[in-house]
């Protein structure tokens, strides 16, 4: 996969970050299975908990435009290092993405990044299948297996 273009778009999206409180900008670029790219930035709020992370902004933009199948997301922050998605964003990604194949690209720059699948970042995720009682034997997440 050509990560460089996706990384460049995440870095560009970061420029739109609304961060008057943390001053910490984050950009994301989400690739759909159909080949479209949705970008996002973090949008903060005076009521801090109303803040939306860059990753969720990208996912919600995509879903609101009819896309539900994704292959990868780039995350780029102002920390000068790889920036892992927060727990809430991992949960949102898990709702739509295949845990074993969806790629999370932690990008410091177009030439400096790490790629990790969602199951490695988020083992033991609470998924839709967990809403059904008595289906423990069907649970696919490896942390629950012997
Ligand atoms: N933030 C993101 O946008 N994505 C993450 O995965 C980590 C945190 C934002 C939220 C907040 O605006 C700022 O970074 C500091 O937590």
Tally of DSSP β-strands: 5
Oligomeric status of the shown chains? Answer: single chain
Any ligands, ions or cofactors bound here, and which? tetrahydrodeoxyuridine
Structural class from helices and strands? Answer: alpha+beta
Rg = 16 Å
Beta-strand proportion: 15-25%
Q: Estimate the helix proportion, in percent.
A: 25-40%
Categorize the overall geometry. Answer: globular
Strand order, largest beta sheet: 2-1-3-4-5
Number of helical elements: 4
Order of helices and strands: HEEHEHEEH
Largest sheet: 5 strands, mixed
Q: Let me know the average pLDDT.
A: 94
Q: In whole angstroms, how far apart are the ends?
A: 34 Å
Model regions low in confidence, pLDDT < 50 over at least 5 residues: none
Mind explaining what this structure looks like?
The chain is α+β, with helices and mostly antiparallel strands and 146 residues long. Helices cover 25% and strands 23% of the residues. The chain is built from 4 helices and 5 strands; from the N terminus they run H-E-E-H-E-H-E-E-H. It has a 5-stranded mixed β-sheet. It is globular and about 45 Å long. The model has no long low-confidence stretch (mean pLDDT 94). The site of tetrahydrodeoxyuridine has 13 residues, from helix 2.
